[in-house]
Automatic annotation (TrEMBL):
Top-level taxon: Bacteria
Membrane-spanning residues: 12-33, 120-141
Keywords noted in UniProt: Membrane, Transmembrane, Transmembrane helix
Protein name, UniProt field: DUF3592 domain-containing protein
């Protein structure tokens, strides 16, 4: 007869999955609220900075990524020239004069992001991962006739 699994480890799994799920939900809500408080505008690419790519293999085999330098006029009339967030990796040099939609907060227009919602993927992934494993771990925890359960072994 195998040794029954302890309830403590099962509860730890449920707590961990709940934490991952809640972190994803809070992160997603934070990003949505931040986006709702921001202003969307169109910026013009005026150049780019070159840097080493974050990927091990590089951008499609290349060793460099490009961060576009953009210019736009904020809602308060301030002219802003800044580098688009490095989280949006461009694998080929952007064309000067090309336009891109950007999001900025009114209190910090130089801190911009593109509108591709790339920052939301971690939150969505955490919700899916945590929710999936939380659902199955709670089901596993509640299953009354599992032969490895201590309660089941005692009734036999």
């Amino acid at each position: 007869m195998s040794k029954p699994r302890g309830r403590v480890s099962e509860i730890v799994i449920v707590v961990f999955c709940s934490g991952v799920f809640l972190a994803g939900v809070v992160g997603l809500i934070w990003q949505i609220v931040d986006y709702a408080r921001s202003t969307v505008t169109v910026a013009t690419i005026t150049g780019y900075e070159t840097r080493e790519s974050h990927d091990r293999g590089g951008c499609s085999g290349g060793d460099f990524a490009y961060d576009p330098i953009v210019e736009f006029t904020a809602a308060n009339g301030t002219h802003v020239r800044t580098v688009l967030a490095p989280s949006s990796e461009w694998c080929s040099p952007p064309k000067t004069g090309e336009t891109v939609s950007v999001v900025y907060r009114d209190d910090a227009p130089a801190q911009i992001q593109d509108t591709k919602f790339g920052d939301l993927w971690w939150a969505i992934g955490a919700i899916l991962f945590g929710g999936f494993f939380l659902f199955f771990s709670i089901g596993w925890l509640r299953h009354p006739d599992d032969p490895e359960r201590e309660e089941y072994a005692e009734t036999q």
